[in-house]
Amino acid sequence: QVQLVESGGGLVQPGGSLRLSCAAPRSIFGIIAMGWYRQAPGKQRELVATITTGGVTDCVESVKGRFTISTNNAKSTVLLQLNSLNPEDTAVYYCNTKILTPLGNMNYWGQGTQVTVSS
């Protein structure tokens, strides 16, 4: 089992910023992508942004120009910079790591971190 350690959530006013961090064990081999998903109350979990180990990024339309995803040099930590936050961004944010194994692609999830945007 791969444990992902998330940090950085909290309460912020509309227009504010937060930075989320998610660290996978450095000993992990085979990471092919990392990303962030979110789940608001009463809604399904949705993709926010992903980044491959090759640096290719993708994000949902609603966060383009506001959120930025990146990784550290070791490709074992994924960061999500959240700018210009609005109340619709309120959700639990989950880190995801996709690892290539002999059995195929495996997905691992963090425990989730709450982001609340409110005045």
**Series of secondary-structure elements, N-terminal to C-terminal:** EEEEEEEEEEE
Shape: globular
- In the predicted model, the low-confidence regions spanning at least 5 consecutive residues are none
Radius of gyration: 14 Å
> Structural class from helices and strands?
mainly beta
Percent helix: under 10%
How much of the residues is beta strand, in percent? over 45%
Largest sheet: 7 strands, mixed
Whole-Å distance between the termini? 39 Å
Mean pLDDT over all positions = 94
Helical segment tally? 0
| Beta strands, count | 11
Account of the protein in words:
The structure is a single chain. Helix content is 0%, strand content 54%. It has no helices and eleven strands. The protein is mainly beta and 119 residues long. The protein has strands at residues 5-7, 10-12, 18-23, 31-39, 46-52, 57-59, 67-71, 77-82, 91-101, 104-109, 113-117. A hairpin with a 2-residue loop joins strand 9 and strand 10. The strands form two sheets. Strands 2, 4, 5, 6, 9, 10 and 11 form a seven-stranded mixed beta sheet that branches. Strands 1-3-8-7 form a four-stranded antiparallel beta sheet, with no helix packed on it. The radius of gyration is 14 Å and the shape is globular. The mean pLDDT is 94.
Describe the secondary structure blueprint for this structure.
Blueprint: E1 5-7, E2 10-12, E3 18-23, E4 31-39, E5 46-52, E6 57-59, E7 67-71, E8 77-82, E9 91-101, E10 104-109, E11 113-117
Parallel strand pairs: 2-11
Antiparallel strand pairs: 1-3, 3-8, 4-5, 4-9, 5-6, 7-8, 9-10, 9-11
